[in-house]
Amino acid sequence: MARTHTTIKLIEFKGTTLPVVAVTLHSLQADALAEAASTLFGADPFFDGDAALLELSQIGDAPEADWRLVQEVFRTHGLNVFGVRGGSEELRRSAAAAGLPAYAAVARSPQTLAAEEIAPTPPPPSEAPIAAPPPRVRTGPRVSPTIFVDRPLRSGQQVYARGGDLVMLAIVNAGAEVIADGSIHIYAPLRGRALAGASGAEDARILCTSFAAELVSVAGLYRTFDAGLPAELAGKAVHIRLTEKTSDDPERLIIEVLRNN
């Protein structure tokens, strides 16, 4: 019988879209970042090995960074940092020397995905780029999954609505954590931690009917209540959101009582 020779393809290129967490840094001091990340995410891994891009536009002229330690801070919480974006040319050069190439943002319409879509900085003309698939064009409103939870969360338990909103129909006890890439609605007391816009969606919000939280966060901006809750917020129905960022007024996290009239 004649032998059939089969050529095996060792490399194949296929277009794909992956979620990327954009992390805006205001410091490159590894110790300070580790403390802030622990306050925000706790001691256990928060993400599941997600890819992360460090946004350096808020750093300015910073001293040299130990990029290995910075990567380790986020690796501890389940994020794999693969590159940087923005910042000074010197900062991007030092990151590249540490194996973190610079990327440029893709221009997007106001109706954007929660996960950042990125494109690499174009290579020099001497390098022949590999053709990339055309970007996806959104032709209708975004439809994201909503997770409903109707059981109480005990201390140490966590619910994460990846890619969508979270609706809690039962109490979030102290030490428990609710997380969503979109908004969080809690129709019960919130006594633990609530983190909305976990992938960077600045239009995410948190609403709850009885406020007694340990920590709240929207798109990485957070507030803790170690010293106790303000009297005007304790036990009230509240609305938590980010203010609009302007050239004169930086983005702020605000908590306001919900009015029914």
TrEMBL record:
Q: What are the entry keywords?
A: Cell cycle, Cell division, Septation
Tell me yes or no: is Cell cycle among this UniProt entry's keywords: yes
Q: InterPro entries recorded for this chain?
A: CAP/MinC_C, MinC, MinC_C_sf, MinC_N, Septum_form_inhib_MinC_C
Region (Disordered) residue spans:
118-137
Q: Name one Pfam family in it.
A: MinC_N
Q: Per the UniProt entry, what are the Gene Ontology biological process annotations, in alphabetical order?
A: cell morphogenesis; division septum assembly; regulation of cell division; regulation of cell septum assembly
Residue stretches of biased makeup (Pro residues): 120-136
Annotated Septum formation inhibitor MinC C-terminal domain residues: 148-244
Family to which the UniProt record says this protein belongs: Belongs to the MinC family.
Q: How does it assemble?
A: Interacts with MinD and FtsZ.
Task performed by this protein: Cell division inhibitor that blocks the formation of polar Z ring septums. Rapidly oscillates between the poles of the cell to destabilize FtsZ filaments that have formed before they mature into polar Z rings. Prevents FtsZ polymerization.
Query: What's this protein's name?
Result: Probable septum site-determining protein MinC
